[in-house]
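Recap from last week: sequence in, structure out.
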Amino acid sequence: MGATRMVSVRVWGEYACFTRPEFKVERVSYPIMTPSAARGLLEAIFWKPEFRYEIRRIGIVKPGTTMVILRNELGSRQGTKPYYVEDRRQQRTTMLLKDVEYLIEADVRLRPHASDPVTKYVEQFNRRVERGQYHHTPYLGTREFAAHFGPVDKAAPAPFDLVVGPMLFDIAFIEDPTRPELAFKRPGRPEPVKGYAQALFFDAQVKAGWLDVPHEKYLELYRLEEGHV
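Predicted structure tokens:
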């Protein structure tokens, strides 16, 4: 892909939690930002149904320090019937990161129904970053940990290596009427479709401060969601 497709942004915050899915009850953060968290942050700044972000790499400027806190959470989701919150409040442990900063580099990939050139969306994204504008508050893993963002300027990742191991890449939402576990929207289609979600993982390693995201994982994601590359 050409350079005109690339967008970049510097993000930082006081706290972050990129939850590992293998821990069912307590929240435990990965040591660095995940590609899915990076995508969600970019979409909070600017998103249109005509394109999707492909995270190329994440630079770790400040890895942060690990800390443990206790948080109040609900034992079950809110349904149509009201209930007294105090009856279902649970205190759970969260292992999170404090004082983090990252660089995100991504490509803008047009969807088949897009009619405008990719440069239009890249320029819109860059203007929003420069002005500090966003659609909804960007966050670092979980919504209570708001993120600040701005141009990359002269920021550079810390020169260190780290073997993370299996890391969540993203979630594929697969249309399948025989498994109507979820209902979700598809860009370009007015009605929700039914199907299921499948987590995708990759072997994550930080080299010289950068986490490279393998492009073949996006090809796998598109095959699952769209039936083609």
